[in-house]
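Note on ligand handling. Small-molecule inputs were canonicalized before submission; formal charges were left as drawn, and no protonation-state enumeration was performed. Where a ligand contained multiple stereocentres, the stereochemistry in the source SMILES was retained. For S-adenosylmethionine, this procedure yielded the string shown in the input block below.
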Amino acid sequence: MTAPDHPAAPPAAAGFDDPSFGRLAALIYREAGIVLGPEKTSMMRARLTKRLAASGAPDLDAYLRLVDGGKRDDELANLVSALTTNVTHFFRESHHFDFLRQTVFSDPSLRGRLPRIWSAGCSSGQEPYSIAMTAQSCDARATITATDVDRQILARAERAIYADAEIGGVPLHLRAAAFDRVPEGWRIRPALRAMVSFQPLNLHAFWPFDGPFDAIFCRNVIIYFDPAAQMRLWSRFCTQLRPGGLLFIGHSERIPDTMRGVLRPVGHTIYRYLPS
Ligand SMILES: C[S@@+](CC[C@H](N)C(=O)[O-])C[C@H]1O[C@@H](n2cnc3c(N)ncnc32)[C@H](O)[C@@H]1O
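Structure output:
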């Protein structure tokens, strides 16, 4: 994986009764910036059972030697995938999409060019496809870049097939234009899929983007990082927004007061980038 821009040892690696879990916490912090403290030991144990069995490692120490030696990047990616939390749903925090409809997709100054939107930490795709559905409902289109550190969840997002229970959040009047019936469930229609391009990206590593975004969605992702990493990311997002661009964050996340000069609140968990 690409080298991260944070220190190699998380404060949270200490305090584990079993030092192997401390090493595991240090590894996931190094690879994805995710802080897993001792209180997450049983979650880690449960999620690792399958990985140990699949890799043939007899115990956690042997598994860590396998993934941390640089020879099994495929298994390292599987480990990152096992330890990320991918909970998401369509139109999560629906007021964000109302705001998008009333601003970006109604902005006359954007006529003639497609809005560029980044869904950072997109999980299984419901967030970027909700953005695409919002654009379509305004007879608009957008160029949506959707990224995640978890390659397995990105593969699911690209497949774009969802079960009956998963499409519940999609407003009824949007469903017919959003999905095709397929044997495995409901597939996002081609016109919506065409708006979204997925790519693996670790938020703590290099960002390969050129040109600013009109809006960035980074919701319910930063909450897993330590305060210093969160602070760095809020600043880095500003470098990727055009002046006047929007930052949408998760319901339990918070922009520090020191940044309120450039990221001005314009709605609940919505900020406009206004550099002085
Ligand atoms: C809880 S989901 C949030 C999904 C969506 N943004 C939402 O709000 O519904 C968090 C996502 O962040 C991703 N993630 C965690 N660490 C990351 C990192 N360092 N870089 C990029 N994505 C990361 C996880 O893989 C996961 O898919």
